[in-house]
Amino acid sequence: MNIFPHAYVVNFDAVVREMDITKFEQLVTEYLGNYTSVLVGTIDLEEQELFVLGEAKKLELDSEAGMAKLHFDMEEGARTWEEPLSSLVKSHDASFDIKEPEQGLMRVKVIYLTFDNGERESTWFFVDQDHLQNPLDYVVEFWRHVHHFGDDFDSGSCCSTNMFRPQTTASEK
After folding, report:
1. Which CATH architecture group holds 3-151?
2. 3-state SS string for 123-145
């Protein structure tokens, strides 16, 4: 099972926890089901690059094949982008309350999935394009605020709340 850090960010409050590929795939599938059209692409802050690939159709995180497969439609037709699961390093679920001119106050959510093959980091993004005037502005601005969450996450150092319970002896019970 592939485990990686996943940051939940809501209006600048963040928590990072472990995520597995099955749950993340479900998260994206639910997100895709909530909107008529979801843009997918890549973002790289260091290189100041943002590429729109097309309309997201499906994300497959196949542990048997060891591949992440992103299925999307372009003007030229259906495409698939693949990355090895071994290079998956972190994910983000970023939501911010935004005032859209025609929609009023609404919660905008962007999902990110980051891979690092040792030479270059690549981050896929998913964003609703039907309800937002400028969805790519949110992709960039949210990523600026959340990209660092999960960088220093060490799943081996996590603890459960049971560690903080006072120890009781048999005579105290």
Report:
1. Roll (2.30)
2. EEEEEECCCCCCHHHHHHHHHHH
